[in-house]
């Protein structure tokens, strides 16, 4: 399914860009934020691309602009690991975390406003337990107490969340 | 198939000819004749023995007269098998499945009295895979079990993980189990006493040499929700439910002679007698396959077939080694106990506890020694038994020195006296009886995967996704137990 997903994205319109997941060697100190959009979604959600784009003011962040064009600058930093990820208001779910598995240096993760983030997603965040410092799970309607119990595995984290 | 009594034969044929679309453009006489023939053929088919039609009124709480597969036992394993059978049938209404449960209130059913935990920390790879497959099922439960226009299923799954503690003597077993679990793909981590203390400051690590913590797919959930989700979905797919007790079977016997000249009886079940509750009325259900998923009472059901009643040194003399064992669970309240992130802790002394709700309540229990097994003729709780549990609890968690027992309940394990692992598969001498029982406390957490495996065995002829041939009845005949090497 992953293979067909890649092929579909290759064949899709030219304005569709996706990020490559950099390999995880020792990280540089630079702050990189990659706004990873298409790669995190299930096949079904490939159809609803337009809702994911979010404006961020800072120039350090890699994002797609108003017209859907995604700059290729991140390719210059191919060997660094990502430190902050913001996938707010997207349809990321448990399977989508596969793409983040290699990011051993992740410090901030924001999934605010994601409708598909549920307790099982939270239970999988243990893979960032040593490095994650901030986790934003506000406005995720499917999270319950059972998922919050899973967050005990994250040791250094401040958690912001509200229903 | 059409079902139910109908008022009159003549009225029926007119109704059908009125509903039949008239494709034929021939003369009026020809069209009407064609319809009459079709109606006549339908009537004849209904009158033949294979159909459900009967000219007499019958009690609607009785099960149907014929079913393809009768599942004895309406617990979570029985309903899981029913769901998967309907899920895997190749054509619509391919198999008629009947689930027979004797207690509509589920007052003594092991499913609903369970603590509801699920873990991957076993020593047998089959058990680990069963748990992982079941956790996958529960993660996507609404894809499997949601019913149109009905509420989505909410299992109230707490992802707190299981924490096993090992003393000096058993630490090596824990390390071996850890490598088996990692090899099978379970996400488990080992903790030293210092790491353990850092993670759970409320623990007293005295005597603990190693701890094993499940990172993913472990925790506890509501068993009643799972049972009802399976039941609701299976009934929506056409499974028949009957509240009654299977009191006996009618079978045919085929005697064959072995090479040594011994006679062996091969039996084939023809009818399962289902008796209505509080009544002498019973219905013999003609069936092709019977699945014994009766939990703690599976031994009795097997005896009805004569399994175990033959001469001592023959296969027919080997009974189904499943019997009920009573286990107690105590609800305690401790105001200063460990908080939201308490895992399901299992100590090497055999004591376990987990958080229950958000009000400072915990449930605790312990498996008794063989000699101290309580009586199983009722579900009364022995409150004195808690005195065996409390010292270990207080030693492990100092905050539990001042706790108060709020209430308690008891439930049965379908305990496999042979090796405490499930029995899945056919019986060698009864050609159409399948077993899915004897899970000794793990039936609930393995039920989705067991249901799928049984459906594959029955409909596909063999295991397809998970190979559970290690759990067949054969090991009981050859007396080779596969034991779970737990630390308790």
From TrEMBL, chain A:
Superkingdom field: Eukaryota
Gene3D superfamilies in alphabetical order: Ribonuclease Inhibitor
Protein name: Mitochondrial ATP synthase regulatory component factor B
Lineage summary: Eukaryota, Metazoa, Chordata, Craniata, Vertebrata
From TrEMBL, chain B:
Record carries keyword Oxidoreductase: yes
Protein name: FAD-dependent oxidoreductase domain-containing protein 1
Gene this chain is encoded by: FOXRED1
PANTHER family the record matches: FAD-DEPENDENT OXIDOREDUCTASE DOMAIN-CONTAINING PROTEIN 1, SARCOSINE DEHYDROGENASE-RELATED
Main location: mitochondrion
FAD dependent oxidoreductase domain mapped to chain residues: 68-457
Organism from which the protein derives: Oncorhynchus tshawytscha
Organism domain of life: Eukaryota
Pfam families referenced in this protein's UniProt entry, alphabetically: DAO
Protein task: Required for the assembly of the mitochondrial membrane respiratory chain NADH dehydrogenase (Complex I). Involved in mid-late stages of complex I assembly.
Entry GO MF terms: oxidoreductase activity
Membrane topology value: Single-pass membrane protein
Gene Ontology annotations for the cellular component aspect, listed alphabetically: mitochondrial inner membrane
Cellular location(s): Mitochondrion inner membrane
Lineage of producing organism: Eukaryota, Metazoa, Chordata, Craniata, Vertebrata
Keywords: Electron transport, FAD, Flavoprotein, Membrane, Mitochondrion, Mitochondrion inner membrane, Oxidoreductase, Respiratory chain, Transmembrane, Transmembrane helix, Transport
Cofactor: FAD
Gene Ontology biological process terms from the UniProt entry: mitochondrial respiratory chain complex I assembly
